Amino acid sequence: MKKALGPAFLFFFFFLVYLVSAAPSVFWWDSGELVANVRTLGVPHRPGFPLYVLLAKIFSYLPIGNFVFQQNLFSGFCGALALVFFHLALVRFLGRQNDLLGGSAARRNLVAFFTTLAVGFTFTFWIQAVRAEVYTLGAFLFTFSFYCFMRATSPSAPTRQGAGAGYSSLPEPYARIKQALTSDTEAGNDWPAVITVGNHRTARWFWLGIFAAFLGLGNHHVTLLATFPFLFAVAGPATFGGLSLKKWVGVFFLFLLGVSTYLYLPVRAWSQPFFNWGGPSGFSSTANLVLATDSFKTVSLSVTETFFKMHRLLSLLFDQLGIGLFFFAFGGLLILLFANKSWFWKMALLLVGNLLVTSLLAAEVIPDNPDLHGYLVFSLFALGLGIAVTIAAFFGVVERAAGAVSNFLVGFARVGLAALFLLFSLIPWTFSRPYCDLSENRIALKMAQEALSPVPPGGVVFLDSPALDFVLRGVQYGELWRRDVVVVNRAFLAADWYRKSLVENFPRLATVFSSVPKKKDPDSFFRLWASRLKQKKVPIFVEFTERDRELVERLQPTGFLFQLIDTAFVLDTVAVEQQLMWEVANLWTEDDRVVQNDPQAVKMLVLYLYRSGLYYEWRGAKKKALSRFQKTVAWGEKGEEVQKRILKLEKEITLAERKKTGSVPIAVSEPKKSRGKLSR
Fold first, then answer.
1. Is the pTM of this model over 0.85?
2. In this structure, what DSSP letter does residue 489 have?
3. Which of 38, 82, 402, 580 would disulfide-bridge 139, Cβ 3.0–4.6 Å?
4. Please, are residues 148 and 89 in contact by the beta-carbon 8 Å criterion?
């Protein structure tokens, strides 16, 4: 009972932290889409995340807050569980080291607590636990599997046998592999690294670990696959080599059971849910969705580029941990290189494998992209192992040195080191809290509501930005707000499965959405469908893009969106003044703390201001355009394209004013060339 108090405290502590910092409503990007899919039991984007959808749906029946908040809280629940099992695995990991690194049970628990505290407060982990996302569920399944394998190899009484003792029952090749991957004699003990699968006490943990690992494949298999070499090494190659045919059948059965969650995708797709990404009703379409075959087209095999990305990813982790904890992490790896080579290579497998997979999958390394950090969670666990080793080594060295002088100094040294490492473990909290405390962040909700408010019932909205599209989905189906509006993503119009989904779910507009132009590109579909909707007198609102210049005369600004009208829109009207008043009332100022701490909100605002500037520039309203471009710069956008447009407009406005007065125009100074690019 006493042993459960520590993990229980850790769980409730982190669950409370994630509870009070959770987003109150819809957040950006995949969060909105996942919320909508859980509500409707739909099929999300590749690889489909069936396990997440089903478990999050079950969690939504708990009487806690509204539906969207429940989904955000589910991530926090899984995150707290993941940290608990990481802590338990750390305690057992330290117990496998020599006396200097392991020490007493109290010291091991204290070191594991400090390490878990540091990991749980990093931006990489914390931002996953306060919004609807799949990454904390994957982290939980990984740490649980890790703990199960550590538990399965729990040592009995250590023996002082020879290097090859205990392996005589194994086939000779596996005995050699086992000896190569373990260095127990170097660590000062002889803990067995072979799981006795026939023993009920250890076998149950072995099978639980196997099942958890395979079950994780039904959540986000790409990220979890990178951890399999590490888990395989922890369980022991000799363990798998010694399995009988019957037990291998059991492993294969658990694999099938774990990945069987993907059967949800075609079964649910046959029912035509509202969200049905890829339409995985057949074997080929399901395989394409699950295996994410389209993503392979963007994978770069350049060795130089891959190493550069891996360096960038390590830099992201360094920025969060700070120089102290980052030094601890790699210091721990160095210590293990000399003290326990087996664990050094295991940790290297986890760290390098995760960094490599992430660098291959990420088209570019965007530091403030939360999804990118979701991929890096496992690298964080690897660094956490290194941090634990260094802290344990400090405790061991200082305690021995103090004990050589006086027993009184040992207790004093322990208290001092505990206070010091507690401060170190809170370093990530100081960096992450402004960005991860989303308790007051309702920006995505407000933007979605402001976008849909001007749309009459039954209207159709054509969007271009996936971020805004996913947010609107979350608001419509998570908050159940403005379900009467039809939202269409222009980027998907060329996909057969997407058009079929529109036809199935909006029968009143089936004739429009089933229309196919001669040229099957998104813009051709948009133009054809817009003309058909106009014939039916359906109100049309669009997210204005750079590709809509030919429509600019017929677009009337209405908040974040523009309404497509039948005749040319005259700028000198009350509607423009109303738009200006709306911007003053609803657009955030540069000193808004919540917006400044939400990089995606800043990008969305910059995108709106830039495109609005394009609209007014193309309409000939140069001063209005200049004002919006200048606001994009005030929000931190330093792209060269914006600078050129500002310079061009300033010259044209100055020339026009000088022409009116008949004076010679004054040259406008050239702006400094910026290396930045416009955020799109």
1. yes
2. E
3. 82
4. no
DSSP 540: E
The answer to whether residues 186 and 339 touch, using CB atoms and an 8 Å cutoff, is yes
Residue 403 DSSP class: H
Q: Could you give the angle at which helices 303-339 and 427-436 cross, rounded to 10 degrees?
A: 140
Measured from the Cβ of residue 109, the count of other Cβ atoms closer than 10 Å reads 18
In angstroms, the CA 76 to CA 126 distance is 9
Question: How many CB atoms are located within 10 Å of the residue 616 CB?
Answer: 22
Q: Which helix (H) or strand (E) holds 486?
A: strand 486-489
680/674 Cα distance (integer angstroms): 17
**CB-based contact 151:349 (threshold 8 Å):** no
- DSSP of 541-601: EE---TT-GGGGGGEEEETTEEEE-SSPPPSSSHHHHHHHHHHHHHSPPTT-HHHHT-HHH
> What is the DSSP-derived secondary structure letter of residue 367?
T
Give the residue-averaged pLDDT of 288-313. Answer: 78
Evaluate whether 339 touches 405 at the Cβ level (below 8 Å).
Answer: no
pLDDT at 79: 96
The answer to whether the Cα torsion of 561, 565, 567, 572 is positive or negative is negative
| 461: three-class secondary structure by DSSP | strand
DSSP for 21-61 reads: HS-SS--TTHHHHHHHHHHHT-B-STT--HHHHHHHHHHTT
Contact 603, 451 (CB under 8 A): no
Letter string b/e over residues 130-148, b meaning 16 or more CB atoms within 10 A of that residue's CB: bbbbbbbbbbbbbbbbbbb
The whole-number average pLDDT for the span 297-317 is: 82
Torsion sign over Cα 103, 108, 110, 114: positive
Partners of 563 in beta bridges: 541, 556
Q: How many angstroms separate the Cα of 36 from the Cα of each of 29, 42, 278? A: 12, 8, 16
Q: Could you give the percent of the chain with pLDDT greater than 90?
A: 35
Structure tokens given for 419: 């206070």
**C-alpha separations of 210 from 151, 221, 255, 311 in Å:** 13, 14, 8, 32
Rounded Cα gap, residues 432 and 329, in angstroms: 19
* Residue 34 contacts residue 70 (beta carbons within 8 Å): no
> CA Rg, the chain, in Å?
29
Structure tokens at 80: 């707290």
Check if the beta carbon of residue 39 is closer than 8 Å to that of residue 56: no
Which pair of structure tokens corresponds to residue 153? 């190899």
Q: Alpha carbon 429 to chain centroid distance?
A: 18
Which residues are within 8 A (CB) of 218 and not within 5 positions of it... i.e. 6 or more apart?
50, 51, 258, 259, 260, 261, 262
Q: Which two tokens stand for residue 243?
A: 């399995």
User: Residue 139 corresponds to which tokens in the numbers above?
Assistant: 């982290």
Residues 6+ away with beta carbon under 8 Å from 408: none
State yes or no: cis peptide before 428, omega within 30 of 0.
Answer: no
Answer for the pair 608, 450: CB distance below 8 angstroms, yes or no.
no
d(CA 557, CA 553): 11
CA 197 distance to own-chain centroid: 36
Cα–Cα nearest to 625, from 615, 639, 640, 637:
615
Read off the amino acid at residue 498: Y
pLDDT in tens, 71-124: 999 999 999 999 999 999 999 999 888 777 877 888 889 999 999 999 999 999
What count of Cα atoms within 13 Å lies in the side-chain half-sphere of residue 250? Answer: 16
Which 3 state secondary structure label does DSSP give 494? Answer: coil
276 DSSP assignment: B
